[in-house]
Amino acid sequence: MTKSEDITTWPGRLEAATKDTIFDRVIVLSETASTQDAAARACIGLPKDHHATVVVASNQTMGRGQRANNWYDSSGLTLPCSFAIGPEFLSLNNPNLAARAGLAALDTIKHFAKDHPIKIKWPNDIMVTLGGVGDLPKKIAGVLIEHSRDSIVIGIGINCLQTKADFHPSIQDSAISLAQLGSETARIDIACKLIESLNHWFSVATEDQVHQHWKRHDALVGHDKKFVYNNQPHTGTVLSIDPLNEICVQTTNGEIKLPVEQTRLV
Predict the structure, then answer these.
(1) What is the spatial distance between Cα 28 and Cα 42, in angstroms, rounded to a whole number?
(2) pTM of whole model > 0.70?
């Protein structure tokens, strides 16, 4: 498969994928500064009971990640997409939104990289460890949750077709793509699978299923990490993560539990 795709076929494929899901509108852009901003704008003035909107771009020029970090897109090689969900999901707090979106991204990557260990790193980065001596986990996808005036916007970026040289120099050793895992899948196929996964985790899955699936794929348990809660650093071995409630850490002063909504990983 070549890295060039005919995106004129994308609207039809995505509309078929959204049938009988929580999504009822599809917007495909050849290029945009940010799919997050495009999705937020698309929902301005919609009725309060509007359903979810899908925005997918072939190229994103000013992507952003968590805590104002850059998200580096390679033209035609990544899958930048955003999902603006409506008031029916306002009862979900940020940890619940982040966990469900993260698990949807996880399942999508697992579907196209079945022979590789795919993990989720709290709060919602999708990581791959190749297994060689000294290999560190590499990021293959990320999730960003933002609240706009008329909706909640979930941004998901997936590294699809890059080689190592295609990545920005600052992340060449910490990022990886599906192509590097041997899966040169068309981006539209990945987008359709992501819609299916999001629909499952937002409209079907229970909180217990969220807990159990996260537990099976947690990337941090057993590792020494540093967290900040209430402006205070806490360093220790991660014992368990309940992505909807708390992180349990064994520190030199004993076991502590950190509330996920007020805690960040550093």
Answers:
(1) 12
(2) yes
All domains of the chain, ordered by start, with CATH? Answer: 7-217 (3.30.930.10), 224-265 (2.30.30)
Q: Which parts of the chain register pLDDT below 50?
A: 1-2
- Burial class of residue 102 (count of CB atoms within 10 Å of its CB; 0-12, 13-18, 19+): buried
What is the overall mean pLDDT for the chain? 92
Query: Cα dist. 164→61, 179, 224, 239 in Å?
Result: 19, 10, 28, 33
Q: How many residues does the chain have?
A: 266
Listed in sequence order, the residues at least 6 apart from 177 whose beta carbon sits closer than 8 Å to its beta carbon are 77, 140, 159, 160, 161, 162, 163, 166
Contacts of 141 (CB under 8 A, 6+ apart): 105, 108, 109, 125, 126, 156, 157, 158, 159
Which tokens belong to 162? 């890059």
